[in-house]
Design brief:
Distance between the termini: 28 Å
Low-confidence stretches: 1-6
Structural class: alpha/beta
Number of strands: 21
Strand content: 15-25%
Bound molecules: pyridoxal-5'-phosphate
Length: about 650
């Protein structure tokens, strides 16, 4: 389905087609020569490098795509931006409390990421949020200073609680957020036994409904948190136990990726009402945690769409600070310490998935013969006549007749009345006709409804060297949109419309929703590809959730992970590299013993040699090739 001619295409056209300036947040742009650039803050001001120069450096170091690229400076900048924006809002609103951010470890648990957040966050007293005992173990070991906090969400058993109480013994401010009423007796019992006063938080289910992907999970039907009735029961229980003074924090989480700032303000207002009345009940509080939700503008539409947001980080911080101050000033209550648990907005920008295209499948017709063979079936002749007579005015009718004739020709093939070459001829005539109808419909202002998407329905399939399930699970599970951009030939018009298939041979392993200028589109414009071309795609803003939720579907393991730091002089250093899982490691993950597999193969080769299927001398090569695969990358290697 080739379309318009490749001339008169400018780099700006690519920038606008892939909306890079809209979602790039100033970090990602196109240079005048058509290179994707990364601009990162450095101690001496912003510095810009070309992504393809980084890829060349990765290859020089012996790694090939697929690669997960992390840009350290971008992660640092996000932490700085969030903390500085809260500091400015606190200043501007004459707010009396302070801000303490916590990073929810579940959003990216990779050691290198969490360690970097703990290190970079130290001057801002940025802490960590733990949702499980293993995450608390990370948080407790990594959190720095005595000013930062740890927030423990999720279900807590005895060991979890004991560890949190040890944290308090060590001088770490570690809050237990009660998700259910039943956690409280255990917290009371363990704290008495250990002689450590707990810092208790109540997680309240706000009734504020939010827009976005998690709309259905917000409000009183949200899974976690205390209902109003349960919260009053919790107050009574702690009062009875003389422990009401331990309730120091009110927690709420409206949902992730909140697109509308109005919803966030409503949530803060509602939380402040609970805050006020819990104080009246005798809980000292002092801390208000608004959870996660700060969204990322994945599609760059700056809107209330599910993959966007209609506010800046500064507006987000200002709304929380100002609304809290207004609400509590009205009732004369001191401003609390503010906590947020921003995950997505902290880490999304710093990671890019890079993969190469391996192959492409077209649905184009080949050149048609001048004349049909003499003995061709009458239905094939009818299809050919239908194709010849097609005109714009009758194209819908021609389309319908062609579909009917094609079905009937396929039935004839199934019952053995026509042979494969004749079927192939009919398919070619059909493809050629559909291509012409699709091209015609694409030029019409109002094409007939059923023909409007014909071009997309006939899009190419570009095969990418990656696993959707391992690297972009939210695209598969939640239809989440991520910006996808070719990294080569951006000064050329892309003449193909494509969907992208991964190499898992799972029919779900495909990307067929992309960001577009007027909403999501089902195909991505790409350049003509011939196998052997070096043509790479970048999937951007993938640092949040994707690395952690990924799975070993088809036993494709983790990608190589390479971290880069951009220097003030626009050079860059490779600061960290993690070689991908080899097949041996991936097999062990699912409980295979590679040595056992190798022994089994050795026995098979021996039997094959005894039975004369192979020469004995062939045996070492077969075993060596198997052993080499065990040491190899699970993805396609060039
Ligand atoms: N806090 C809690 C309790 C959460 O459940 C989540 C994720 O849904 C987050 C924080 C992180 O949210 P986000 O990634 O939107 O910042």
């Amino acid at each position: 389905m080739s379309s318009t001619k490749p001339e008169s295409w400018r780099v700006e056209d690519s920038a606008s087609l892939y909306r890079i300036n809209e979602w790039g947040a100033g970090y990602f742009r196109l240079s005048d020569s058509g290179e994707v650039t990364i601009t990162a803050p450095t101690p001496e001001g912003p510095a810009t490098v070309q992504l393809n120069d980084i890829i060349a450096g990765i290859r020089e170091r012996g790694y090939d795509t697929p690669v997960q690229l992390r840009i350290d400076n971008l992660l640092e900048d996000r932490i700085a931006q969030l903390n500085n924006a809260f500091a400015s809002a606190i200043d501007a609103n004459n707010y009396q409390g302070q801000y303490r951010g916590v990073f929810p470890i579940k959003v990216n648990q990779q050691a290198q990421v969490v360690e970097q957040i703990a290190r970079v966050g130290e001057p801002y007293h940025h802490g960590l949020e733990a949702g499980s005992i293993a995450e608390l173990m990370i948080a407790l070991a990594l959190c720095r200073g005595t000013e930062s906090v740890i927030v423990c969400n999720g279900y807590k058993d005895r060991d979890f609680i004991d560890l949190g109480l040890h944290a308090i013994q060590l001088g770490v401010r570690c809050f237990f957020v009660a998700e259910t009423l039943h956690e409280l007796p255990l917290i009371i019992e363990r704290s008495r036994r250990m002689g450590v006063e707990p810092l208790v938080g109540f997680r309240v289910k706000l009734s504020t409904k939010v827009q976005g992907h998690w709309e259905a999970d917000s409000g009183e039907r949200s899974i976690f948190g205390l209902s109003i009735i349960q919260m009053m029961e919790a107050v009574k229980l702690l009062r009875r136990e003389n422990m009401l003074h331990c309730v120091k924090l009110l927690h709420c989480h409206l949902g992730s990726q909140l697109p509308d700032i109005g919803n966030i303000c409503d949530g803060v207002r509602e939380a402040c009402r609970y805050y006020t009345d819990l104080i009246a009940e005798g809980c000292p509080l002092g801390w208000l945690d608004m959870g996660g939700g700060l969204a990322v503008d994945y599609d760059g539409s700056n809107s209330t769409g599910g993959y966007s947001k209609n506010y800046t980080v500064e507006q987000y911080c200002d709304s929380i600070v100002r609304t809290t101050a207004e609400m509590l000033d009205e009732v004369g209550i001191a401003h609390p310490m503010l906590v947020t648990e921003s995950g997505r907005a902290t880490v999304a920008y710093s990671s890019i998935l890079l993969f190469n295209i391996l192959d492409v499948s077209h649905f184009d017709a080949l050149a048609l013969p001048q004349q049909l063979p003499d003995d061709v079936h009458s239905q094939v002749v009818a299809l050919s006549v239908c194709a010849e007579r097609m005109q714009e005015a009758t194209m819908e009718r021609s389309h319908d007749s062609a579909v009917t004739l094609r079905n009937s020709i396929r039935s004839l093939f199934a019952e053995g009345s026509i042979k494969l070459p004749e079927l192939a001829l009919a398919e070619n005539i059909y493809y050629d006709l559909m291509q012409r109808i699709a091209d015609m419909a694409a030029t019409m202002d109002k094409p007939p409804e059923k023909l409007a998407n014909l071009k997309q329905a006939r899009a190419d399939i570009y095969y990418g060297n990656f696993s959707l399930f391992q690297s972009l699970p939210d695209n598969w599970a939640l239809q989440q949109l991520f910006p996808v951009v070719p990294l080569n030939r951006l000064n050329e018009r892309p003449t193909r419309e494509a969907i992208i298939a991964d190499i898992t041979c799972d029919c779900d392993g495909k990307m067929d929703r992309f960001i577009g200028n007027t909403g999501p589109r089902s195909t991505l414009p790409l350049h003509e590809f011939t196998p052997g071309d070096d043509y790479c795609l970048g999937v951007f803003l993938v640092g949040a959730y994707q690395e952690t939720l990924g799975s070993l579907h088809n036993l494709f393991g983790d990608n190589h992970v390479i971290s880069v730091r951009i220097n003030p002089d626009a050079s860059f250093d490779f600061v960290h590299e993690i070689k991908a899982d080899d097949a041996d490691e991936v097999l062990r993950t699912v409980e295979y013993d590679p040595q056992y597999l190798l022994n089994e193969l050795r026995n098979k080769a021996e039997t094959a040699a005894q039975n004369g299927l192979i020469e004995v001398a062939d045996r070492p090569q077969i075993l060596e090739d198997y052993a080499k695969c065990l040491r190899g990358y699970t993805y396609f290697e060039r």
